Amino acid sequence: MSKRDYYEVLGVDKSATEREIKKAYKRLAMKYHPDRTQGDKAMEEKFKEVQEAHEMLTDSQKRAAYDQYGHAGVDPNRGGGGHGGDFGDIFGDVFGDIFGGGRGGGGRQSRARQGSDLRYNLELSLEEAVKGKNVEIRVPTLVGCEPCNGSGAKKGSTPTTCPTCHGQGQVQMRQGFFAVQQTCPTCSGKGKIISDPCKSCHGQGRVEKTKTLSVKVPAGVDTGDRIRLSGEGEAGEMGAPAGDLYVQVHVREHKIFTREGNNLYCEVPLSFTRAALGGEIEVPTLEGKVKLKVTAETQTGKMFRLRNKGVKSVRSGSVGDLICKVVIETPVNLSSRQKELLDELESSMGTGKDVAKNRPKESGFFDGVKKFFDDLTN
């Protein structure tokens, strides 16, 4: 008995796209599937007929051979890839799209690729990062070609569906039970052919351009933070959406302050007389100078905290502190009179046990050293 025309079996025209063929196949496969027809032999034969037609017409090479030579140009049983009733495979094709599984279904259809994301390194001073600012940046990128509106085709013409892959961007090679998908060699996976390319972009749909963008840097950003500019990356292929631009923040080192989180740290040099007597000194903040009260007998390395003089968090809005570390400075370039006064001060503190009263750390250290050597000799 002669075979029916594959297009007639599926009820589609010879110009039907693969998507239309698959849609018709799924509808008929569900209608005639043996699990639904309860052993009806006639329905089972129709199911096999639908399966064979689907296999031939969704394989670009087999379809081309069939269109040219009819049934004589194809052998559905060659290589074990015929219509032997692989019901599990059919269930995957029929129900895969519904439940997100299967062998890819509509996912094999080619889509123009979205544009690539870009990164721009933005360097800021600490003051700029803490206060925030608007900056203009220049970014070299690919933008959609205006004359062809990103299509790649000359104005007045449009891309046509690739005849090899029928717009899918991929061709399928079958070997027995295995199917291998490859990028269509005719359209390079785009699914479209441009016969009359745009002269401005030479059929690419994109051209190189340096864009000037305004970036609002929020107050409180720090090194490693990223600012996302949606849609400001490279333009997509053939009118597909553009990627994003990520502005990567780097804050330069500051001469006075060091930042850790929302807190600022700085070292404050202090004369040993002021450290001993105490009093008020001026210390810097990002907002100007403020008074800091130093307690008497302050030792080097002591930390003083100034509340809410740090950085406002870009996320929570809380404000950090300024931590001032005191570093006692030994005087240099002393005059003769200054040296005499220091000698008098040193003498006034006495020796031996009297030292512990004015310099307890020094006394404790040497007491420890003495004990160490005593233990060695005993």
Q: How would you sum up this structure, described in words?
A:
Helix content is 29%, strand content 25%. Among the domains are: 6-108, Helix Hairpins (Orthogonal Bundle), CATH 1.10.287; 258-329, HSP40/DNAj peptide-binding domain (Sandwich); 345-377. The chain is elongated. The model is unreliable at 76-110 (pLDDT under 50). It is an alpha+beta fold and 378 residues long. It has helices at 6-10, 18-32, 34-37, 41-57, 60-69, 87-99, 126-131, 272-277, 336-348, 355-358, 360-377, and strands at residues 118-124, 133-144, 160-161, 170-175, 178-183, 192-193, 206-217, 226-229, 245-251, 258-260, 263-271, 279-285, 288-294, 303-306, 322-329. The strands form 6 sheets. Strands 10-11-15-14 form a 4-stranded mixed beta sheet. Strands 1-9-8 form a 3-stranded mixed beta sheet. Strands 2-7 form a two-stranded antiparallel ribbon. The protein starts with 5 loop residues before the first helix and ends with a helix. The relative contact order is 0.09.
